Amino acid sequence: MSNGVYRDHGMGTIVIAALVGGIAGAAVGLMLAPKSGRELRHDIGFKARQTIQEIEDVAEAKVDKIHDVGDDLVREGKRLADDLKKIFSEFRQALSKSEIEIGLESEKT
């Protein structure tokens, strides 16, 4: 059902949305908790550093995955190029044999 409201989102988008939601929820929870200003700032800083680390981990995993996919695509492209070279070479050989045969046949008649 694709009416513009529902779209396919990648896992990275979902993870980032969850992390942002988690940060917002944690910040609200910390602000409503009965703590001193110093404790609250410490908790917010800790949670922010923790969330940044999680985002970096997810980003690094995505970069690694993209790199792997890119390597696979390059390998597949090289294989396809080699296959095309072989096909064209075989075609060229077949064409040159047929020209020779055609030339010999026309000389016989």
Describe the protein.
- The chain is an all-alpha fold.
- The chain has one domain (11-108).
- It contains 2 helices and no strands.
- Helix 1 runs antiparallel to helix 2 (37-108).
- The radius of gyration is 31 Å and the shape is rod-shaped.
- The chain starts with 10 loop residues before the first helix and ends with a helix.
- The model is unreliable at 1-6 (pLDDT under 50).
Features:
mainly alpha; 109 residues; rod-shaped
Overall body shape: rod-shaped
Instruction: Note the beta-strand portion.
Output: under 5%
Query: How many strands appear in the DSSP assignment?
Result: 0
Low-confidence stretches: 1-6
- The SS-based structural class is mainly alpha
Number of DSSP helices? 2
Question: What percentage of residues falls in helices of 4 or more residues?
Answer: over 70%
Topology:
Layout: H1 11-32, H2 37-108
Helix pairs in contact: 1-2
Question: What's the short story on this structure?
Answer:
The protein has one domain (11-108).
